[in-house]
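seq as requested:
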Amino acid sequence: MKLNELRRLTDQELLREADDRMKELFNLRYQSGTEQLENPSRIRHARREVARIKTLLRERELEKKA
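struct tokens:
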């Protein structure tokens, strides 16, 4: 998902999306360990998606405190 699309989501939707990406990352790592992963760059992409989502959640948390 692009950053603009993520910004439109609510906090609950972002948490759900982060959970989905973490599950995807787990599955990708498992596939990598069993040498079944066809495209290793998908791991990097999933990690970055999780980081984007967590960054947005943190930004929103800081905005609420300010």
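The helical segments are 3-7, 11-33, 41-65.
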